[in-house]
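Long-time lurker. I teach an intro course on protein structure, and each term I like to show students one example going from raw sequence to a predicted 3D structure in token notation. This year I'd like something fresh instead of my usual example. Would anyone be willing to generate the tokens for the chain below so I can use it in lecture? Attribution to the forum is fine with me.
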Amino acid sequence: MTTSIDITQRAAELRELLNHYSYQYYVLDNPEVPDAEYDRLFRELQAIESEYPQLLSADSPTQRVGGQALDKFDEVQHAIPMLSLDNVFDQQELSAFDKRVRDWLNTDKAQTYAAEPKLDGLAISIRYENGILVQAATRGDGTTGEDVTANVRTINSVPLKLQGEHIPAVVEIRGEIFMPKAGFEKLNQSQLANNKKPFVNPRNAAAGSLRQLDSKITASRPLEIYFYGIGVIEGMPRPNSHSEAMTLIAGWGCRISPELKVLEGLEACQRYIDDLALRRDNLEYDIDGVVFKVDDTALQERLGFVSRAPRWAIAYKFPAQEEMTTVEDIEIQVGRTGALTPVARLKPVFVGGVTVSNATLHNEDEIRRKDVRIGDTVIVRRAGDVIPEVVKAIISKRPDDAREFVMPTACPICGSDVEREEGEAVSRCSGGLFCAAQRKEAIKHFASRKALDIDGLGDKLVEQLVDAGHIKDVADLFLLDVDTIASLERMGQKSAENLVNALNAAKATRFQRFLYALGIREVGEATARALALHYSSLEELMQASSESLMEIEDVGPVVAHHIETFFQQSHNREVIERLLSVGIHWPTEEKKQTNTALSGKTIVLTGTLQTLSRSEAKEKLLALGAKVAGSVSKKTDYVVAGADAGSKLTKAESLGIEVVDEATLQQWLIQE
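-- Reply from a regular --
Happy to contribute to a lecture. Here you go:
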């Protein structure tokens, strides 16, 4: 098929534009046009190439989507071997390397080094001829690698065509392909959602993605690249220094590490290591050390190579973030909210810069998915301040006497029943009022403003009282005396007297507040109010079955189960009896008809009310069977607008929801 000059020119123009926009977006992180404009131009080029296949070229952005799957990878012989680097692990070994360099060069002069992070990825060599990408190969054994050209083409930050004016006839640019942390997490979420095995770490994910025989799979993976050097170069002189080479590479449109620096002397190198180590965990990608290279190319040639490594470069390795060890036992930790977390007790191992003897296993499902057993050899990972975790079990090393973990049915702290809600991964202790692991949080909630509202009993004071052994559960609060409280740090006689008075005052409460204060899972203010209106006494509620509880509007099977389970625990009942014995009481709640005009209506309060507070208005509306919401939605029936009403009023008007004033609210309350 013949093609017009106009179509040929338009295809070339589109390729140039799209490659430029990709460079701006993926290399410079500075998008020049909206995504919609890029997509429009991309589709236009696709349409032209589809109609005129002869216009398809190797540098076309349409070639990033992946092609037909391969049967195997072809071998590629590296014209210049891709050598590995020798490693050093501390300042003394780095100093010895620097001394060797200066001795070989017969100089006492401080050396100039180029420094950059050692990425934890996969080395790659990409060959360009007349600026066009023609081949990409893995390191392999350093002499022979695999041809992964089709896969590398799919990586957006790899230029299909070099830019700039001074481009050599042939150049082989080397770099590291890696997977950013965010992309790795997203990929593993997708793997789990599709019942596929997740990747162990970003490096494995990058390697597995690059070595797919189907390049369409590689195209779907979030791979990135930083280039770090030049191999073969023809048609122009080799740069005089590594830093000059990196400037050239960047000028050709290739991404180089933003952390690249040229340093004078050993002390500057150590400062670079210290700085990068501090920022390591905040980088968007994994690194496992720092690479130092003698910057001057002529000096590199003088220094030469030894065995399979250059004398002019070294890799300073950070402490490993992954190591192997043995699971000696699996124990349960109970958190402040009652969550039971399995923890692996490990044979101590040095990982991530510290000695690790235990690591989280998250929950029962994770143990099953990873198939971790007591006695297994496992890979443990620790990055920075992140809690160490067991990444995987090495099944091939499993001993015959390895034991499967069984989640306990009773809390190891207090003996209360352990419950796990359907659809949730977390198992929880149901002894909220009694369990020592949940003690502080239970007391803080009990004393909070919407519960018993104990004035002067703040979070820090609760922690002091618990830590000093003065209170073990909420009932102990009402046995505190002035002398005990005054003995605490920053608590004087007057403050202690005020707190005792506040505790005595809090004994007189309301049934709904008391129920909310108990901290039953899923029982908020509205549910507590509904329970108080439905049951004539606490004893009746404590004897209620799930079926009875579900007769109450808005109490479904999950909430009913939590309430029934809470009151079934003997420990919780004992604490409640103690609370009543120390004088907690409330008046009998007046039963309200829930079949009022407001029953089931959703009302939002906004602005300042003149005749009553918003909390008082809420209480009265709830007593009439209404639902009081905190935000306006299509499900809202009325918005009560007081003075200086703001965005909620605006949203109500935009949704066409009926807005009433405070006078109407008062009429509702009086009429009912």
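Some talking points for your students: Residues 5-27 form the longest helix (23 residues). The CA atoms of residues 181 and 283 lie 9 Å apart.
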